[in-house]
Amino acid sequence: CNQGSQSLVGYEQDEVAGQPLHAFLTEEICTAWVQQLVADEQAEPLQNQETSLQNAYDEKIPVLASASPIRDEAGEVHGAVFVLRDLRERKKLEEQVYRSKRMESIGLMAGGVAHDLNNILSGIIGYPELLLKTLPENSNLREPLEAILESGQRAAMVVADLLTVARGVAIAKEVRHLNLLVKEYLNSPEHKKLNTLYPEISFEHRLEAMRTGIFCSPIHIKKCLMNLITNASEAVVGNGVISITTHNTQVDEVKALEYEIAEGEYIVLSVEDTGSGIPEKDLQHIFEPFYTKKSMGRSGTGLGLTVVWNTVQDHESKIFVTSGEKGTCFQIYFPVSKEKVVMTEESSEQEKIAERSGTILIVDDEPQLRDIAARMLKSIGYTVDSVCSGELAIKYILDKPVDLIVIDMQMEPGMNGHDTYIEISKISPGQKAVIVSGFSDSADVKAALKLGANGFIKKPYSLDQLGRAVKEALCS
């Protein structure tokens, strides 16, 4: 038993000497090998047999085993030499490849259905919202319309989560204060809903004062936080506490090796609960798509922690999970950015819905989507017209210039949104435009924004989202 074997089995050499082989390997394997190697005088070496080894810490370690008989000068077998290769790292890499391929499959599925689903959901979300805007508060239709709207929004979240898992986070990142993003989430309708659903849970937060920020997609950081807090809420039975904290930390060379991250300064976001904890056998699977022990109806899409994992990876960050009988703690290490922090302020509700003026052309191949967008923009004061193709949009602009175009990126048949925007920019240099797509990270969206488009809005959108995007584009 050499030094490598001692390290693998966890015993000293004198503890291993004289022990039967089946003390470490399965008895079935040992019996078969001994019979083949020792009993059979013509036995050949056994090469690369996968099995598992039981070490001193009662761990099962995957190993690749080879064995050769030891013969004397007469050719008689007196024993065998066993070579065991630790497969843990290889198995870890194989698991990563498997997960990557699984994510790729989900990506293909999501990409294939997201465009059509987002178009369908635009009607399910858009029309109820428009009707609710016109109905009196005491109308009997308000409750069913609100239910339809909420169902549509939940379905849109499923599609958005699939796309985040498949394609990564949004195209736009900026340097933001993590504390402000946490506060924005804690003041959001989503968190207020959690407070209502779980009145027995106390939500506490301790945010360490800090001047530095992180380079991030704000919407995905808040979604990540929401998913962690939602997950924690569902783990707490009865009275409990969920703590949200932030702090600065410095990762030195020793910690960098231990944590498998780069040295440097980090901002750590922690979400800790006093729930029942996560069983050890489940810990390694919790970030896998649809791996949940909870009811789908209660837990949402089954992608909550997968979205967290992908968001963390896309931000070149690291997530750690510790869990026991007294609860679970998730910690995310975000690298500190030395760039200047972008300061933003949430628009007031009055500013969001304030009426505006200007001429807008909607360009979309879907009649329903043209109708929804036109109705929404007309309801807040804009003069709106619409066309069903890129070719007709070019003819329209040649004859009648507009203040802004709202253009869908995916149109069939004929010119797509990107090519249409290029041609319109030649006719009307500096033409203001808002790009619409179900995919926030598509090459066409990136290219159109690089060419000078003034904004992007993801389908399905609300009146508030469309109104703000148009207002910001016109004011830019």
From TrEMBL:
Entry-linked CDD domains: HisKA, PAS, REC
Response regulatory domain sequence ranges: 359-474
This protein's record includes keyword Magnesium: no
Domain named Histidine kinase: residues: 112-338
GO molecular-function term, one example from the UniProt record: ATP binding
UniProt keyword annotations, A-Z: ATP-binding, Kinase, Nucleotide-binding, Phosphoprotein, Transferase, Two-component regulatory system
PANTHER family: C4-DICARBOXYLATE TRANSPORT SENSOR PROTEIN DCTB, SENSOR HISTIDINE KINASE
Protein name, per record: histidine kinase
